[in-house]
Task: structure prediction
Amino acid sequence: MALTQIKFAPGIDKQDTKVGAQGRWVDSDNVRFRYGLPEKVGGWASLINETIVGVVRRQLPFVDAEGNRYVALGTDKFLLLYFEGQLFDITPFRFDSNNAQEQFLTSSIDTTNTSTTITVTTKNGGAAVPHGLSVGDMVVFNNFAAGSSGIADADLEGKVVQVITVPSTTTFTATVPNAASATSSDGTVDIQPYAVVGPAEQSYGYGFGISTYGGVVTGGSDTGWGVAVAASTQTLEPGLWSLDTFGNVLIATIANGRTYTWDSNIAAKFTTRASVNTTNFLTTLNPVASRLTLVSPTTQHLIHFGTCTTYNDASTQDDMFIRFSNNEEINSYDVKATNTAGTFRLQDGTKIMGALTAKETILVWTDSSLYTMKFVGSPFTFGFEQVGTNCGLIGKNAAVEIDGVAYWMSNNGFFAFDGTVKSLPCGVEDYVYDDIDTTKGQQICAGLNNLFTEVTWWYPTTGSDFNNRYVSYNYGETMKLPAGNWYTGTNTNSIRTSWTDTLVYPRPYATKYNESSAGTFPAVVGVTGLGQTVYFEHETGTDQINPDGSTTALTSFIQSFEFSLQKDQTEYFLAMRRFLPNFKRLTGNNNITLSVTDFPATDATATALSPFIVTSSTNFVDTRARGRYASIKLQNTAAGETWRFGTFQVDLQPDGRR
Result:
């Protein structure tokens, strides 16, 4: 009998059954579609030998006036800078309500012989004072004097130290690398607390805190880190950052916290931290609690979303309130007839979730709607228009924009805005939304890969603490596909927490988090339970290159629908004698598995001779298989392998009705 060519349309269809998804692929991992054909995604390689402490959820690549390229990285504990293959810690210290850096000078240290635990009593002027610290917070030790404890100065001097326990409002414990050789109380140290960002994981709040006892309220209807909650309807939002630039200056805002600046022009920039008191770029008059910030690219207003109605009072934070500075003055918010500062409150929703610039407008999402924010000049400065309802943003980092079109993930589907809001048909919608944990929406990360016209969302499923799946939308190849061009994956090595496209660097950069490992940068004394982030450059090579230079094979697969002999002859069993694989590109091996079943309700099982190992020189494969329905699966399992599939031709013959 003549060969039958089985045709496949691009994209994954999980809305239909495996038999009903005629001409479609039904499952995949680490696969994309380009010009209609499936192929393995490109590999990725670690950019640095070090790993980052904590989870990175925001990146901002930028260039200064001298052409130096940077990436700012916001984690749940730190604000870091990537520059020419190195990381620098520019995390701001904690500042009080008078914008003075908080310090505890000549604090006392108690040690116990043979123990690695030290107890610090925070003091100023010789008297114990409350520290406001919580378990997991970071402090810097300076001017350390070991006294008779026997602890080496090098173990703690100038080091970042993690708070392990908080026995009281004036004491905390830490773990030192080497045990004390004596029980003593004569050690002293100056303490500088880091600004608190937030927890690694978003979760419901129960009782007094969730993973810590006590803490600092940072304002807002969503509970801060370690804050008392009355019921499990409140969520503890994870530590997030807003990152933007104002000329050569990085502007960094902690979610529901303060705004800091870092100047790339100064000589000692890599040893200078972000601050509210940066020379010429103060943020001392900025609101003290905002859900997020953004700099208007054309008018240079610094805009605070979900912020304080009284700028210096965190208790007045209103999650729907917007406040913007005078143009080109990031520390001027007094509303006057002679400037362009102002305020506005959105109405539809309970909180502002995110904002992006898109050509001549700023898009602002609440948890239920979409607004546009456009510069209109005096006297209002900005005009606001609601352009969408029931299309809110699921998480701050769940939207991207390209060429004036925004794509985002909501609690109830995927949407696009190109002047009007459009619901995106999605062939994997039930697969995503039947299992997504929407209570962890602030952990969801959207990434644009413009080279392949893709938007990918990495998200957590029910029962997972962190992101463990992804779904990709190909916005460049969807015109003839009623359910869109979507593909999915669950490979652990492919899950990301932040992503940045080729804006400054030639390839995308992304971060992968492992909660079970410990990071190495910044070096933290007594680090525990904070997890590890690896920083990757994408679309390079065929596999994963780890920080230590080792290679992890990047596996991939794609599974077809279950096809029959002919649409009007499904009562016949089919017999397969041989097939002709046709790869556009194949390096190494590809394993092709044929599976058959007699009934749509019965799972297909691999044939006895499967899988068939195919190489670029394979012309045909002889096989014997019989069933009413059949499917194929393409898979690579070893390092150095990559592929792009073309067509599939098979020798099918009728083989009876039973």
Q: What stands out?
A: DSSP finds one helix and 54 strands in the chain.
